[in-house]
From TrEMBL:
Its EC number is 2.6.1.-. CDD domains: AHBA_syn. This is DegT/DnrJ/EryC1/StrS family aminotransferase. SUPFAM superfamilies: PLP-dependent transferases. It is an enzyme of class 2 (transferase). It comes from Ruminococcoides intestinihominis. Gene3D superfamilies: Aspartate Aminotransferase, domain 1, Type I PLP-dependent aspartate aminotransferase-like (Major domain). One of its GO terms (molecular function) is transaminase activity. Belongs to the DegT/DnrJ/EryC1 family. Keywords: Aminotransferase, Pyridoxal phosphate, Transferase.
Length: 405
């Protein structure tokens, strides 16, 4: 029997050497490595600029704060996602408005999204689930068509003069759609480099944004720096390497910068990222081919116009319920294959139930969730491991369906 962990970090000697170099350099927190990583991210995403912070969650929260979103505002988010997509809305005091999935789809229902837009809506947070980019053309068309409802209440909202689209790209670094890279499609995109993601800095995140009339990229970058480092006008690197110790603190702000140890780890990962993506897509093709005649719905990771980041391999057991899926999960684990479930829709979690959300209002999300399973698929696995996952999956499927009959 093999042991296939769900999502181990893909760390090679390149990453180890890069981290050791920083540890020996005399400078370990935010400085030249993190700045170089930011340039690398922007370059990869075809944007002019990027900011690295210590998580996707911090990137999303700081972006909402910079946009001036707060109490009295509404922010639209899918019900089928991880809590981080929505909790940041609560952190800034705004109200999350959750949207059900389209029937038989992991994507949010864009008609319902359009109908949920009110005069209070400031931001929409589409989630590029499993690394598959959302239909941003439709999202922007809807945002444009509802322009008249928008009531800006900050200078940056004035510059947009419409709802702002802030993607949760936690899964989607490296994804493409219609020839455009994730990070250069939504107004703002927040990426995660958490340990289980495709590309990791252990913990970390980045935000990229598209150029927009009336928005000064350098000024915006400075705002992220202030917000993420106590509102202090000079970071530690500048204080240590400049000619003056003098600084000011302009506001009581947050602390979520990315240290150079992690920036260096990210740079090393980025140098291998083409290879990592390529391997993931080869494995996806292997799984797709192996499962094509089974009674499953698998999430599509590429077509003629798009290629995902290949982050998660989703299957749905058609015609089955939660009991079957749960048994399946345990049987796979007994055979050494660690699977996962993505996600438990937010209205099923205590934090959102107490806010009044109820899963019966999100029937499509529940139906997607109840028979969903995520198979291990990552760049640490060998192709023999992937074959073992396939063989085990088919064996368990045969056993469990035989048991039912
Ligand atoms: C992992 C994840 C996040 C949060 O990323 P962090 O870097 O851990 O803050 C946000 N959204 C989704 C969908 C995620 O899976």
């Amino acid at each position: 029997m093999r042991n296939i962990p769900f999502s181990p970090p893909d760390i090679t000697q390149t990453e180890i050497d890069a981290v050791v170099e920083v540890l020996k350099s005399g400078w370990i927190t935010t400085g030249p490595k993190t700045k170089a990583f930011e340039k690398g991210i922007a370059n990869w995403c075809n944007t002019d600029i990027a900011v690295c912070l210590n998580s996707q969650t911090a990137c999303a929260e700081m972006t909402l704060r910079i946009l001036g979103v707060g109490p009295g505002d509404e922010v639209i988010v899918p019900a089928y996602t991880y809590t981080a997509s929505a909790s940041v809305i609560c952190h800034v005091g705004a109200t999350p408005v959750m949207i059900d999935c389209k029937e038989n789809s992991f994507e949010m229902d864009y008609n319902k999204m359009a109908n949920a837009i009110t005069e209070k809506t400031k931001v929409i947070i589409p989630v590029d689930l499993a690394g598959v980019m959302c239909d941003y053309d439709t999202i922007f068309d809807i945002v444009e068509s509802k322009k008249d409802l928008f009531k800006p209440n900050s200078p940056i909202q004035d510059a947009f003069d419409r709802i702002i689209v802030m993607a949760d790209g936690a899964h989607a670094f490296g994804a493409m759609r219609n020839g455009k890279k994730c990070g250069s499609v939504a107004d703002f995109t927040n990426f995660s480099f958490h340990a289980v993601k495709n590309m990791t800095t252990a913990e970390g995140g980045a935000v990229t944004w598209r150029n927009h009339k009336g928005i000064d990229n350098e000024a915006l970058y400075k705002q992220y720096m202030l917000l993420s480092l106590h509102g202090q006008t000079k970071d530690a690197f500048a204080k240590n390497h400049g000619t003056s110790w003098e600084y000011d603190v302009v506001d009581t702000q947050y602390k979520c910068n990315m240290p150079d140890v992690l920036g260096a780890l990210g740079l090393a990962q980025l140098s291998r990222y083409d290879e990592i993506l390529d391997k993931r897509h080869k494995m996806i093709d292997m799984y797709n081919e192996a499962f094509k005649d089974m009674n499953l719905q698998v999430l599509n990771h590429h077509d003629e116009n798009s290629r995902s980041s290949g982050h998660l391999y989703f299957v749905r057991f058609l015609g089955k319920g939660a009991e079957f899926r749960n048994k399946f999960y345990h049987k796979m684990a007994e055979n050494g294959v660690m699977c996962n479930v993505h996600f438990k829709p937010l209205p099923m979690l205590t934090a959102y139930k107490v806010k009044g959300f109820d899963i019966t209002d999100y029937p499509n999300a529940y139906n997607m969730h109840k028979n969903q399973l995520t198979l291990p698929m990552n760049s640490k696995m060998s192709f023999d491991d992937a074959q073992y996952v396939i063989d085990t999956f088919k064996k368990v499927y045969a056993e469990l369906t035989a048991e039912e009959n």
